[in-house]
Design goal:
38% of the residues lie in helices and 14% in strands. It has helices at residues 47-53, 60-72, 77-86, 102-115; strands at 4-8, 19-22, 38-39, 89-93. The two termini are 14 Å apart.
């Protein structure tokens, strides 16, 4: 069974992580490019949504809803779904908040799409 994990880019890599895919629009500070297998900035929340959310947990439910809507119309998600169908994938993010970030929503979207 394919696993879709979510991890902060600053955490160590585990053997079962599969492909590390950075899902942020901006490259994280202090991270070497060779640590990430693929950078898919086009699947990250739009700049407008990211700025509106501003990592404010009180906006989480609305952010989640808006981002899921963006993902449903985003053709770049297809490539990520194909990667996930082939094996384990870890969605990498740089936000400090481990519970309220785009990678969490993206994992939810991918897992639902893989079930269908």
């Amino acid at each position: 069974m394919v696993k879709v994990k979510v991890k902060r880019v600053y955490w160590p890599r585990d053997p079962d992580d599969g492909q590390w895919v950075l899902v942020e629009r901006l490259w994280p500070r202090g991270v070497r490019r060779d640590l990430v297998d693929l950078w898919m900035k086009d699947v990250a929340p739009s700049p407008e949504l990211r700025k509106w959310f501003s990592h404010d947990p009180s906006k989480w439910e609305e952010f989640r809803s808006r981002y899921l809507e963006e993902l449903s119309r985003n053709p770049a998600v297809g490539e990520l779904l194909e990667i996930a169908r082939r094996g384990n994938v870890t969605l990498i993010y740089s936000a400090r908040d481990e519970e309220h970030n785009g990678a969490i929503v993206l994992r939810e979207f991918i897992e639902k799409a893989l079930e269908e």
